[in-house]
Design a protein that fits this description.
Shape: rod-shaped
Distance between the termini: 105 Å
Number of strands: 4
Length: 129
Amino acid sequence: MGHPFFKSGFSLTETLVSLLLIGIVIAVIGIGLSSVLQSVAMLSNQQRVVELENFIARYVYMMGAQGSEHVDAETINRAFYQGSQVSYPKVKGITQTAVGQYFTKYTFTIEITPGKDEKPFFVYQYKSY
């Protein structure tokens, strides 16, 4: 019939162990891919936050050069997204304080994702007299 040293098939234990090992390998690969994709999304979002901060600073400087004192969150968000749907990150709030006679300090709160605020972002605007 068969060779005396080999079994004719796999036992139930061997089959279960092999399926368990295959499942572990698939889980490890899945976790690795998931963490890589999450890191890429987080980096992309962080890059978008830096772009928004640069945009805010330039916007405030230009408004100061024009002699305008009014800066509001909705105008900045609409200008940053150029008329398309405002998404995240976005400016959530602005506070304004006079610093001495020549400067106005703006504190911007940037909402990165819904409900998650970033640390405050400061911009100083020169007051032209």
